[in-house]
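Honest question from a wet-lab person: if I give you the sequences of every part of a complex, can you actually get the arrangement of the whole thing, not just the pieces? Trying it with mine:
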Amino acid sequence: MIEFRQVTKRYDSDHTALRQVNFGLERGELAFLTGHSGAGKSTLLKLIMVMERPTAGEVVVGGQVLNRLPRRQIPYIRRHIGVVFQNHQLLFDRTVFDNVAMPLEVMGASPRDTGRRVRAALDKVGLLQKEKMNPMQLSGGEQQRVGIARAVVNKPPVLLADEPTGNLDPALSADIMNLFGQFSQVGVTVLIATHDIALINEMGRRTLKLDHGRLVTGGASVIGGGVRGR
Amino acid sequence: MAADPRKKPQPARGANKSRSPWREQAESYFTHHRKVAEDSARRLWRNPVASLMTWTVMGVALALPVALLLLLTSLQGVSAGWESSARVTAYIELDVPLERAQVLSGDIAGDGRVAGVELVDRDQALEEFRASSGLEDALDYLEDNPLPHTLLITPEEGARSTEGVEGLVRFIEGMEGVERVQVDLGWLQRLNAMTDLLARAVWALAILLAAAVVLVIGNTVRLSIESRRDEILVAKLVGGTDSFVRRPFLYTGAWFGLGGGVVALILLQLSLWWLSGPIERLAGLYRSDFSLDGLQFDGALALIIVAMLLGWLGAWVAVKRHLDDMEPGDIAGGG
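Yes, you can. This is the full assembly:
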């Protein structure tokens, strides 16, 4: 589902964020992405989101090589990738429902469809009762869950999370990780960038570790056929 | 990614029973447009003072050239009216007898460019002059009638242009027994030249003010883009296309245009109402049927449409400059 082939990203002559990174993630796989701060975790996620383009190598998502993707195709790729941020990026000028509905609205889903899917997503994260509230009225953990609902509302095959538990206490973090585990069980490829070593150990999943832009553990796997199949 | 992989885990859904997906797509597209249009309008409404100020600026900028254009059209109407009544006067030589003048009159009437000829014989002319001028006593001292026979010629409608009339004048001048042909087109030409000049000036002004309108709206929309930055970034992040992200701002521009057009109409009606009294009095003094006409329904509609287009264009300029290069990259954080 996600494949990096010899990917290098250089911002300018003296700052290389990623060096020849190679790895592949299968459909339904859940993996952690870890490393010291500045190791290139965010850059790696940005390459998958096509917020950045690689300097060398190929990024393949869902069988599509992103390097050559024309600019106006980018939105359509992003519709297949859900993203969760540490600071959740919710909009406080609208209700929880409208926040979660955004990915559907951009796709031009019908209002009926939107209502059904938003409620299903909110139900999944246990916030169905709060759809009419403003995200500002919610606790940090709840806000993060709204962010997750928004990321999965259109059932993307890929889910990325950047420090999703950064501001949360361990119990809430476990809850959220549990959610991610459930998504991977239904076939979503989940990649979670995090510092939280305890959490990683507890989950016992594959871990990609970056060190100064190099992938030091957890690389390779899935080369060839498996990536393309959907 | 052309196919929809999201549907995989959940294959059959009851959403689109009898409706074709195409129809559903179109329907939700229009629903979305309506929603965005309403939302943009509501946002303007929520800031009544700021919106009203923008509308007024736009209204003034639009009303000024339109008022001048109306004035110009009225002036052109006046000169056209006079042109149609243009008469050519031919004075026959003094020693030509009345019979010969009648023959001349018949010849001229036979010309294709002439609608009608009226012969005023010299005795009749003297009587009229005596009656209208009040110079009876003075005229009594004259031994002879100093006035010639006169032909009053009305050109055919097709020959009423300046060139046509000039050609006709040359033709009549060439006839034997005609002393002099007079046509008072000079002042008409001057009026025409003046209205032409005025027309150009008005159009130049209109273009400048239209550009000003575009810039004002562009700047206003730029501020609105800045204030909705987060929303734009999130929309781009979840896969909003450029046109999706632009849409609300283009509607905002069009609504600014609508408001501006309405304000312009109100200003025009008010100033017409305010000017109508003095204009009537002035026209009365000149014995003219000149009147300054307001915009008809179609004119008003055209004004509103043009205003909305200008607003849309202004928004488009702002959106092109400030929105397309907004990328969600920076909210993902560094590291």
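Two things worth pointing out. Residues 91-155 of chain A form one domain. The beta strands of chain A are 2-12, 15-25, 30-35, 56-61, 64-65, 81-84, 158-162, 189-193, 206-211, 214-217.
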